[in-house]
Amino acid sequence: MIATGSVCAAANRPFRPARGTIITQYDTNILKIAIMSKKRIVVLTGAGVSAESGIKTFRDSGGLWEEYDIMEVATPEAWERNRDLVIDFYNQRRKQLYEVEPNDAHYALVELEKDYDVHIITQNVDDLHERAGSSHVMHLHGELKKVRSSVDENLVYDLEGWELKPGDTCELGSQLRPHIVWFGEPVHMIPAAADLSNSADIFVIIGTSLNVYPAASLVSYVRPGVPVYLIDPGEVNAAHIQGVRVIREKAGSGTRRLVEELRK
Ligand code: OAD
What we know:
By secondary structure, the chain is α/β, with parallel strands linked by helices. The protein is built from ten helices and nine strands. β2 (117-122), α8 and β3 (137-139) form a beta-alpha-beta unit. The radius of gyration is 21 Å and the shape is globular. The model is unreliable at 1-17 (pLDDT under 50). The structure holds 2'-O-acetyl adenosine-5-diphosphoribose.
C-alpha cells in the first residue's frame, strides 16, 4: 500500500497517477519515499523465540540455568577461574546451533517485512533470525558463531565450525573467547537499541522473561501510545507495560497470528 497522503506532502503537490501513465523519475522518487514511509515494527526477542527450534531457554523449568551455574560459565570471573569449562559450555551451545533450524516464529517475522520496516533486537546469541532471512537483526548479548580476543574486544572473528579450542589465539597472541556479553559486562548495543525502541510505531516482545537488564528496560523507551504486543505462553510480568496486549501462546503460533493480523 502506498501512503499517498504523506508522499504528496513530501512532494508538495498532488499525486494522482492515471491509468497507463508512464513511470517517470518523479514517480520513482515518490515510490522510494513511500517505501521509506513504511511503519516501523521493533521486535524484542528472547530465548522463547528459539524454543520451538529445540534450543533450551534459560529460566524455564529444565532450562539451562538449572543445569549450569551462571557464575561458573557466564561471567568474566568464570573465564579467569576455569577457561576450559567456559569454552566447553559455549562449544556445546554452538555445536547444537549447527543442528537446529529456524521455526515458524522466525519466518513469520521475515514475512512482516513485506509491509513493515522490521527491526529485531534479540537477546539470543543464535543466528536463527538471520538464517530465516530477517534483514535487520541487532544482537544485544553477542553471537555464538563469533569469537573475540580476550585482550582487545574489538578484535572479533567468525569461528569456522563449532569448536573453539584452548590455545586458539587472536592476532595479538592471546586466547580467543566466546563473543558473548557475560553477566557483569557492559551491553554496548543498548544505546542503539534504545534509539530503535524509541523509533517504533509498533513494539513486539516475544519469548523473554524480561528478567535481565538492561535488555528488559528497552520497553520503557517505547513512545506513549505505541501499540505493544507480548507473545509468551508463560507468566511474564508485564504489568508495568502500558496498554500491552498479551498473547499467551508459543512463539510459532502466536507470532504467525499477530503477523496475519498486522498485515490485514
Ligand atoms: P528466559 O529463559 O529468562 O525466558 C524465556 C521466556 O521464553 C520465558 O518467558 C518463557 O515463558 C518463554 N517461552 C518458553 N517457551 C516458549 C515458546 N515456545 N514460545 C515463546 N516463549 C516461550 O530467557 P531470556 O529472557 O531470553 O543472557 O533471557 C535473557 C538473557 O538471560 C539471555 O539472553 C541470557 C540469559 O542469561 C546471557 O547469557 C548474557
